[in-house]
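Researcher: Next sequence.
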Amino acid sequence: MKVICPEYIKSIMPKRSADANKYSVGSLLCVAGSYTMAGAAVLSARAALRTGAGYVRCVVTEEIYPIVSAAVPEAVFLVLPSGKGGAVSARYTKEIIKAANKADAVLCGCGLGQSEDAKSIVESLVFETDTPLLLDADGINIINKHIDILKDVKKPLVLTPHEGEMKRLTGIPSSYIHNNREAVLKSFCEEYKAVTVLKGKDTLILQHSKEMYKNPTGNAGMAVAGSGDVLAGMIASLMAQGVNAFDSALAGVYLHGLAGDLGARELTEYSLLPSDIIDYIPKAIKSVLKSREV
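Model: Next structure:
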C-alpha cells in the first residue's frame, strides 16, 4: 500500500492555460439536495467551485432553490418541481440527462434522499449517459439495493462510502469492516471496477487492478455531518477538470484532509465545520503547489 504524498498531488493538479474560460476548466452537474437537506447541495457545490471547476450547475427543486442560490451565487441552476420524497420529480429525468450529457462530470447523491423519484434519477444517470460520475451518500444507498448493475458500467465511476454505507454495499457487519478495512475494500474492488473511497481515519482509495492508497491527512474534527458532501464536491470538481477518476479521488481526499487540518489548527477540532473546510481549500491547494517537484 502507498501513502498519498503532496508531491504526487501537485503533479496531477490540472494546469490552466492563459486563455482559459469557465467551460474549458470544467463543467460539473450537481444532482444533490432535497426538501430537508438543502445544505448538502450548498456544501458540495461550494466545495466544487473552490477546488477549481469553472461552471457548476445545480439541479434543485423549487423549494430549496432560494436557499441554495443565496448560499452559492457563483453556481447556475436547473430548477425543477419536486416529487413526493422532496427530491426533484423523476418526470424531469430527461432534462437532467440532457444536462449531464453537456457536463464534463456529474456528482449525484448528496442529500438526495431515497424516494422513488431519487431512485429513478440515480439509475438513469448511471446508465443513460457516458459522463464520468461520482455517487455519494444517497446515491450509494440507492445503488446498494441492486449493486450488481455496477458491473455493467463502462464510464469512469467513483463511489465514496463511509463504513456504514460499505456495510450496505457488501452486507458485511460494520464491526468487521472497521477492523478489516483493507481486506474488505480489496475484495469489493476485485468485483466492481469503480474507484472506491472508503472514508474514515486513514481513508483508503482503490480501483480494480491498481495499488491501494492510504491518506495521511485529516483529523477527528472533520467528523461532522456535511464533511462528506465537501469531499464529494472536491473529487467531482477535479474529474470535471479532466483529471482521471482515480487521481481525482487521491487529490480530493488528500486536499480535503489537509484543508481540515489547516482549519483545525486555528479553530480546534471541536469547532471545525464543513463550511470551514471549504474556506481552507485554497490554503491546502497552495500548500501542495509549493511542495517540491516530483
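Model: Strands lie at 2-3, 27-31, 55-61, 76-80, 105-108, 133-135, 157-159, 195-198, 204-206, 213-214. The longest helix spans residues 245-267.
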